[in-house]
Amino acid sequence: MAVHEIKHPLILHKLGLMRAAGISSKDFRELAGEVGNLLTYEATRDMPTESVEIEGWTGEAIVIDKIKGKKITVVPILRAGIGMLDGVLKLIPNAKISVVGLYRDEETLQPVAYFDKVVSDVELRTALIVDPMLATGGTLIATIDLLKRKGCQNILGLFLVAAPEGIKAVVEAHPDVDIYVAAIDAKLDDNGYILPGLGDAGDKIFGTR
Ligand SMILES: O=P(O)(O)OC[C@H]1O[C@H](OP(=O)(O)OP(=O)(O)O)[C@H](O)[C@@H]1O
Ligand SMILES: O=c1cc[nH]c(=O)[nH]1
Ligand SMILES: [Mg+2]
Asked: Which residue ranges does the record assign to the Phosphoribosyltransferase domain (predicted)?
């Protein structure tokens, strides 16, 4: 597994704006989509391409590059992952979407799974998990467990902010999965929130609480 912290100036700038106290849901959601878009660009950098011949605008045959091989299914984790989905789909608009629903129990910090609708041919696809926060890692580990049980073999994850504790747990549980993250922050607080972090990303995206 490789963990990629993408320190692109646009990502640093946009993530910095997301950290401000009192940010509106509208701004938070827009920025989550934009950073999701930039992370998608990085995460797809090594996708293999192949040359194919087509008829060009002059009527002559020309050779172009096309993305080759496994197709993608984007896997937003409800709720907060929905906030990044727009930005991801702007770059890969034909991707099938596999929605999974998990929330983290506030007392135990354990993930509770409540929904999944995964594409039927997931074993033929690369799964691109999207969620703003990777905190203890419990939610991501449970999501990867679920995808692997359904036969998926290629899995990447995109996150806005991750805690070192969560990354360590995921690396131990699933060493084959690649993680792309805009920032690896300092640590978790006593309630399992990332510091300095973004606060509760789901509540900010949906305007709850
Ligand atoms: O790494 P973990 O410790 O498991 O925590 C991360 C999870 O917590 C948040 O979801 P939350 O439970 O708040 O659900 P929500 O998206 O519905 O708000 C976040 O969006 C992740 O899914
Ligand atoms: O910091 C955190 C941790 C989990 N979930 C969030 O939304 N934020
Ligand atoms: Mg939440």
From this structure: 7-208
How many Å from the N-terminal Cα to the C-terminal Cα in the chain?
Answer: 36
Q: How far apart are CA 25 and CA 126, in angstroms?
A: 31
CB-based contact 196:186 (threshold 8 Å): yes
* pLDDT per residue rounded down to tens, the chain (209 residues): 699 999 999 999 999 999 999 999 999 999 999 999 999 999 999 899 999 999 999 999 999 999 987 799 999 999 999 999 999 999 999 999 999 999 999 999 999 999 999 999 999 999 999 999 999 999 999 999 999 999 999 999 999 999 999 999 999 999 999 999 999 999 999 999 999 999 999 999 999 98
The CATH number of domain 3-206 is 3.40.50.2020: yes
Whether the CB-CB separation of 1 and 177 falls below 8 Å is answered with yes
From 106, 139, 141, 206, the mutation candidate for ligand 1 (largest count of ligand atoms within 8 A of CB) is: 139
- Six-digit token string for 46: 């090594």
Question: Which residue lies with its CA nearest to atom 8 of ligand 1?
Answer: 104
Flag whether the pTM goes above 0.90.
yes
Rounded to whole angstroms, the Cα distance separating 110 from 102 reads 10
CA of 91 to the centre of ligand 3 (A): 26
38 CB within 6 A, ligand 1: no
ipTM here: 0.98
